[in-house]
Write a sequence for this structure.
């Protein structure tokens, strides 16, 4: 009969150890008993970039990377993208279940009545240089919110926690839009709470002299769907940052600012910006074979391709590709789309990409949609950050209630010099 355990023999000592297997995993701490002698520290695992280490148990997002499956709280992303709204999905992520009508109305009302930020935020943003990247502005203003809400430190109080989750989801579009308006030198637009979450964001981005901004319904819905598709993605770089920083029990604004910093990098949420820059630099379809050659020679990466977890088509990329067609019908077809389609066509047939299981990821087509909708390239990661806040906060909320969690503190394998005495300057 099979037994849910693993027997390990240490060939240094000849001793055997039996460690339990739970949910296809062993506890790393069970290896610590494996020692050469009593003074030995015990065995550790070495896992740079955490490629095979589960740092938490989570009930929020499920990914099957081999089969291109992504579910939030069990609901397939395709169904949510088709039938739900971003705020409903945010509720689902944070609360665990889809809301009933009364819960949804209450949630939407709470979010849409917390969209304003303290007027000092406006003054604070004025201090940024005229060419400050909107993502730098966003990260800094999220961190600054911590100073406006000192009670956010009471993270053990679920009521307080809920209030700051609502506040942060509500204020993200305002901070994001203002970072854009500031970098363009445009006057700031205050929230319009009669509009939808996505519609209000578009209003704060686009509104000029008109009394009331009316978002195009297709573009409003497209943005809402993009928000759904970006809302959570389990333990990626920024979410792990949220959890690591949150494990120190700091307030959620400080932890979200750290997570947003992680998202900014070109290998993570900054990839959508990198994709557009790459497509612009390629310029025309006939240059695609040359670029593929450079990628295969290891001279560059194909941005928007590859994923640590997905070893098949990213299901978010499939949904985004469909959205792109709808948007281009309104905005006109982007000439960059042909370059993207050709890159994808060649890559999907080429042994280099097929062998390494490199497929388009969420960032490959999202930038083209943002571009068509008139967002400057520098705003793309900001557009990713707005909905991802819901995922970060859901994960943080789960972390705070998780009795298994303590302050995150990985180990190291020390490779530096052994103890030595200080050398006076004259002897160096
Ligand atoms: N273009 C060309 N080759 C690639 C690419 C790429 N985009 N991605 C991976 N490879 C190759 C890589 O050179 C390596 O080849 P070899 O085995 O010969 O050395 C192999 O594939 C494995 O790559 P890796 O870097 O070990 O894979 P990883 O899991 O550490 O990295 C990744 C994942 C997403 C950082 C990487 O695929 C990448 O840099 N992609 C481009 C940036 C990008 O699109 N990022 C967005 C990710 S999805 C959204 C998000 O997370 O925010």
């Amino acid at each position: 009969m099979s037994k849910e355990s693993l027997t390990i023999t240490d060939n240094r000592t000849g001793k055997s150890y039996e460690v339990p297997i739970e949910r296809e995993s062993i506890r790393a701490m069970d290896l610590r008993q494996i020692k050469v002698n009593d003074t030995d520290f015990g065995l550790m695992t070495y896992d740079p970039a955490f490629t095979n280490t589960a740092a938490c148990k989570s009930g929020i997002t499920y990914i099957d990377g081999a089969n291109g499956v992504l579910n939030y709280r069990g609901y397939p992303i395709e169904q949510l993208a088709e039938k739900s709204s971003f705020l409903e999905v945010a509720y689902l992520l944070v609360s665990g279940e889809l809301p009933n009508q009364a819960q949804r109305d209450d949630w939407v009302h709470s979010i849409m009545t917390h969209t304003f930020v303290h007027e000092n935020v406006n003054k604070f943003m004025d201090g940024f240089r005229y060419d400050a990247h909107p993502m730098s502005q966003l990260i800094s203003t999220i961190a600054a919110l911590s100073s406006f809400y000192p009670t956010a430190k009471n993270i053990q109080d679920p009521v307080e926690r809920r209030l700051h989750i609502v506040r942060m989801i509500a204020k993200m579009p305002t901070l994001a839009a203002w970072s854009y308006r500031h970098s363009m030198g445009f006057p700031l637009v205050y929230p319009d709470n009669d509009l939808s979450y996505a519609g209000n964001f578009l209003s704060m981005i686009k509104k000029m002299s008109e009394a009331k901004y009316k978002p195009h319904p297709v573009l409003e819905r497209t943005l809402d769907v993009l928000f759904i598709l970006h809302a959570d993605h389990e333990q990626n770089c920024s979410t792990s940052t949220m959890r690591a920083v949150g494990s120190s029990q700091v307030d959620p604004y400080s932890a979200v600012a750290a997570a947003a910093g992680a998202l900014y990098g070109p290998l993570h949420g900054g990839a959508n910006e990198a994709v557009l820059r790459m497509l612009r630099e390629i310029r025309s379809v006939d240059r695609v074979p040359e670029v593929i050659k450079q990628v295969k020679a290891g001279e560059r990466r194909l941005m928007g391709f590859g994923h640590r977890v997905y070893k098949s088509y990213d299901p978010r990329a499939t949904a985004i590709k469909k959205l792109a067609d709808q948007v281009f019908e309104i905005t006109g077809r982007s000439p960059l789309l042909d370059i993207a389609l050709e890159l994808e066509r060649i890559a999907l047939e080429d042994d280099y990409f097929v062998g390494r299981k490199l497929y388009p990821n969420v960032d490959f087509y999202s930038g083209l949609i943002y571009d068509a909708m008139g967002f400057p390239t520098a705003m793309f990661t900001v557009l990713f950050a707005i909905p991802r806040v819901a995922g970060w906060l859901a994960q943080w909320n789960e972390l705070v209630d998780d009795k298994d969690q303590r302050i995150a503190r990985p180990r190291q394998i020390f490779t530096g010099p052994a103890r030595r005495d200080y050398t006076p300057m004259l002897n160096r």
About this structure: Residues 1-45 form one domain. The mean pLDDT is 96. Strands lie at 5-10, 15-20, 61-64, 69-72, 75-76. The two ends are 66 Å apart (CA to CA).
